[in-house]
Amino acid sequence: DTINLQEIHDTLVAIAFEAGRMILAADPSDISTGTKMNSADIVTETDQAVERMVSSRLQTAYPSFAFVGEETYVAGTTHITAAPTFIVDPIDGTTNFVHGFPFACISLGFTLDRVPTVGVVYNPFQDLLFTGIRGGGSYMQRNASHQLPQFPPQRLPLAGKGDASRAPALGKLSAALVAVEWGSQREGENFEVKARTFRKLTASNENGGAGSMVHSLRSLGSAALNICATAAGQVDLYWEGGCYAWDVAAGWCILAEAGGRMVSGNPGGWETELDSRVYLAVRGAAAGQSEIVEEFWGVIGD
Ligand code: LIP
């Protein structure tokens, strides 16, 4: 059987809009059912309800495909294989959702041979949709669920941010806007590396700091939206150590189709895997961006 990627894309977009309606209808003030690792690692009943809806829709539409979801993942037991697989984060940005900070999304990825092949990321608070199909480009659409003719999908990267088919110039690290996240891991060496890296990226060179002094750091609170912002060219880089495949699978396809690249957040990892946990997303065609990536790896490695 040949797999119809456009049909999968359309199915995922319809599911994303349904999930968006559930997320907007939920009351974030009284839905916290508990935490996972610590008080910064939050899960809500809405995360679980959205994942149940998504998995039942996908099970009906594509009964033979595998499904990996954040809320039903079992460490050590759930594996991403070469099979056609949906990789789903029902709410990426749960902390934002709980606080009513309007940056949260549903992230729906589809992989073939472990390669991100379709990606749909939808922020219902902004009605903002990002989509990508491998080989077919990636797009951003405003007022997406209303399908207003004055808001057609815009090809990524956005105008003025390069051309996905060429290698657009991306300056030095010191001219970059960089997305980072604190994540939910708040102790030990993992925390120290984050704190040290953020400091080195922002410290002024003039005062004897070892930093590259980027333009600034941004933490949107959603890995998937950070990757989409990188694909659009709204930020130049996004670094995080501690994500899972469901945080990145959809965005990965969207970024690659915008001419960007996911590499390892650890120095030297030009080739990286969906479940490597430590990522650096880079906008622009990867071939032209080795300098800024090496510069960033230098900051981590110091
Ligand atoms: C979270 C991300 C957040 C990131 C965390 C985690 P959740 O996902 O969106 O930006 O820092 O590592 O992945 O728990 O909201 O789905």
Description:
Keywords: Hydrolase, Magnesium, Metal-binding. Mg(2+) 2 binds at residue 91. Pathway: Polyol metabolism; myo-inositol biosynthesis; myo-inositol from D-glucose 6-phosphate: step 2/2. GO terms for molecular function: inositol monophosphate 1-phosphatase activity; metal ion binding. Belongs to the inositol monophosphatase superfamily. With 302 residues, this protein is α+β, with helices and mostly antiparallel strands. It folds into 2 domains: 5-155, Fructose-1,6-Bisphosphatase, Chain A, domain 1; 173-301, D-Maltodextrin-Binding Protein, domain 2, CATH 3.40.190.80. The protein is 31% helix and 23% strand. It is built from 7 helices and 14 strands. The protein has helices at residues 5-25, 45-61, 94-99, 188-202, 223-232, 245-257, 290-301; strands at 32-35, 42-44, 66-69, 85-92, 105-112, 115-123, 128-133, 137-141, 154-155, 177-180, 216-218, 237-241, 261-264, 278-282. The strands form 3 sheets. The protein has a 7-stranded mixed β-sheet, with helices on both faces. A 5-stranded mixed β-sheet has the order 11-10-12-14-13, with helices on both faces. A two-stranded antiparallel ribbon has the order 1-2. α1 (5-25) packs antiparallel against α2 (45-61) and α5 (223-232) packs parallel to α6 (245-257). The longest helix has 21 residues, at 5-25. It is globular and about 60 Å long. The mean pLDDT is 90. Residues 70, 89, 91-94, 181, 183-184, 221-223, 240, 242-243, 247 line the site of L-MYO-inositol-1-phosphate.
